[in-house]
C-alpha cells in the first residue's frame, strides 16, 4: 500500500454530496435516464468532467441533488462515502451535509438526516463510532484500538461526526430549523453547523440569527469564508469567532492578521481550490505561503 494511503488521517471538510463515487453518480443518472427524467448523454460528460469553475461546481451540485433525492439513495451514498474515506485510512471523519426538505417525496430535514444515520449504521467494511461518549477509561482504550488499526492488526475503526450545513440559498427560518435539528441530533454524532453554498449567492447576515442561536447552544461552527473576494463578509465572519473557517482564499493582509490573532483554524481545501481555478497554481496557494509571508505577518 502507498505510504500516503496507509497513513492515518483526519478529514474535516467533506461535503456528503461532494464526495460521491463517479460510478454511483453514473449509475443513478442511468436509472433516471431510463425513467425519462433526464437525458443520460447530456449529464454523463458533466459528471465525468475533471476541472470546473466554481460556478460550474454549483450547477453540478444541483444535478447531483436531483440524482440523490430519495431516502434510500441518501443512505447508500453515506455508506459508500464513509467506506471510501475509511479505505484511505481516515480515522476521524467530519462529514457535513445540508438537510433537505422535499414535500413531493415526503422528505423532511429530519427524515433526510435519519437516512444519513441509517447509512452510518449500514457501513460494514469498518467499525464506525458516531455516537459521542464521555471521556472515560473506555475511551482511552478505544483510542488505543484506533491507533492499532493503522498497523493492520485489528479491525479498522473510523470515528465519524456530523456537521449540518446551511445553504446560502436558504431562508433564516430554514436555517433555524437546521440548528434545532442539530441540537436534537447531538446524541447521534452531530457536533456542529456549517455555512456553505455558492458564495456568490445570498448574504451571510441572513443566517446570523441561526448561527448565534447555535453558538449560544454550544454547537461548533464553521463558516465558508473568503472563497470569493467579499470584503463585506470576511471581517464580520471573523468577528463572529467561529471554531473554524473553510477556504480563506481571498483575504487581505489585515484579515490574515485578525485570523491569526483570533487563532481561528482554517480548513485548507487545496484540491478544490486548484480544480475550481480559484487559485491558479499550487505554488501560490496560501497553504504553501503559510510558512513564509502569512505566518510572518
Ligand atoms: C467548492 N466549494 C464549496 N463552497 C461552498 N459550498 C460548497 C462547496 N462544495 C460543496 N458545497 C456545499 O455542499 C453542498 C453539497 O453537499 P450536501 O448536499 O450538503 O451534502 C453544495 O450544494 C453546497 O451547498
TrEMBL record:
Its cofactor is Zn(2+). Residues 8-285 form the Adenosine deaminase domain. It catalyses: N(6)-methyl-AMP + H2O + H(+) = IMP + methylamine. It comes from the Eukaryota. GO terms for molecular function: adenosine deaminase activity; metal ion binding. GO terms for biological process: adenosine catabolic process; inosine biosynthetic process; nucleotide metabolic process. Pfam families: A_deaminase. Keywords: Hydrolase, Metal-binding, Nucleotide metabolism, Zinc. InterPro entries: A_deaminase_dom, Ado/ade_deaminase, Metal_Hydrolase. Belongs to the metallo-dependent hydrolases superfamily. Adenosine and AMP deaminases family. This is ADENOSINE DEAMINASE.
